[in-house]
Write the structure tokens for this entry.
Amino acid sequence: MVSVPSPTHGAHSATAVEQPPLPVKLVIAGGFGVGKTTTVGSISEIRPLTTEAAITEVAAGVDDLTHTPDKTTTTVAMDFGCITLDPTLKLYLFGTPGQDRFGFMWDDIVDGAVGALVIVDTRRLDDCYAAVDYFEHKRIPFAVAVNAFDGAVEHDLEEVRWALDIADHVPLTVFDARRTGSVRDALLVVLDVALSRAQAAAAS
Amino acid sequence: MVVGGREPQETEEGTWDDEEAAVGRAPAVRPFLLTAGRVSGGGAAAPIPIETQIVSTADGLSVLGKLAFEHHDIVAACRRPQSVAELAARLRLHLNVVRVLAEDLCAAGHLAIYVPHARAAQDISVLRRVINGLRAVPDSRGTLRDSG
């Protein structure tokens, strides 16, 4: 049973003054300026916080991350927020730092995440290729959500799917990053993918 | 720490100048000195995940007055459980500095660290609880708090 966390470090851990909630992590990805922080802020119960995270940059395409020796670790700003779902369960939303012209590894942020929402701005479709590739490669459950700036989507969804080469099994949806209910529904699409995958794994 | 005959004062001055140039950035140098140059994940063990919950222990709070600087701030802040990421953001420390200092404080018995179970993200009952919790989020919310 994983829902009751127990301290895993240190001999004196049992004397913690308060039992913490189980943290669950969801990643908000997409290109620079696509609305990641807006998305986090629309549903987080706290104002989005910023911290410095380490990512690994590679100077080549993301397909051969594991084979590329030319990697450097870079410190980047990362925005995040959280929602207390019940007294024992807290959902964290971490926005991946947007990086241009580089492959990148967000493993430090992404490892252990229940899933990811990749946000797309249809005016700059190119910006989210890397994120889609990354989550496919990492086998993290994810969905793609077109951020409907000003309520308008400039492309038909199937055109977006084709242009981004998103596999048929990956849900593609439209949402408004400024609206709490809309962000909630987009996150639920990701959770549905995660649940389906967990159920399939349990059944096999 | 000072190599090549440079005076300690010069090093410190340079440090603070650099920091002022980076407007709004946390003072990153002293924490790295506090970690004695150690960074998280450098050894055999993987760094603790950023959502890992940290909580003060009764022992830690009882010696709070004797702790200095970041050690004091971390133990004081963790009266309420929070993640490594929240702690880093609120104290304006680098994530990896918080990781190192938290593990030191844990070894000293001042903090408890709750590393999430690696399989929790694929646990059907956990996922169902997240879904139910999210469904209860209303269509619109009030003003955001500044701290969680």
